[in-house]
Amino acid sequence: MHFRRLVVSLIVFLAFSCGKDSVAEQDSERLRQLEQEILAFIQDKACTGDRVCGTIAFGAKPCGGPWKYLVYSLKAADVAALEQKVKGYNELNGSINKRQGLISDCALVVPPAVSCQDGQCKPNTNQ
Q1: Which of 27, 93, 99, 123 shows its CA 20 to 30 Å from the CA of 52?
Q2: What is the rounded distance in angstroms from the CA atom of residue 98 to the CA atom of residue 113?
Q3: Domain residue limits at 22
Q4: Which PROSITE patterns does the record match to this protein (predicted)?
Q5: How many domains does the chain have?
């Protein structure tokens, strides 16, 4: 009788463990897909001057703040649509952090200075 309970308990435990891994994998895959969509959306970084280059905070560190900043061209990207896409990504990233109890460093990531270099918005390398 005890052996049977042990086997049933083990099966239930494994079923729930697999479910958690599956959810975590689905979360990671969804984040990856959203990131690829956003990167494709801002792929065209064409510019004619520094004023058309911008940055947007991307990701949500468990400790707070973004993981990084993305560089984009105001000339080439629909900024309102980009902001909505990134907001959705950041919210999903934040909820995954909480649900999975993730941790991160608390290093402050600052937006890079950007400029139009050779007709493309790029972070300044001489900061």
Answers
A1: 93
A2: 31
A3: 2-123
A4: PROKAR_LIPOPROTEIN
A5: 1
The reported pTM is 0.79
- Is residue 4 over pLDDT 90? no
* The pLDDT value given to residue 36: 98
Q: Which amino acid is at 74?
A: L
User: Are residues 120 and 46 in contact, defined by beta-carbon separation less than 8 angstroms?
Assistant: yes
Token representation of residue 3? 């052996």
Contact 70/90 with Cβ under 8 angstroms? no
Q: Is the pLDDT of residue 15 over 80?
A: no
Dist CA 127 CA 86 (whole Å): 25
For residue 44, with 0-12 CB atoms within 10 Å meaning exposed, 13-18 middle and 19 or more buried, which class applies?
middle
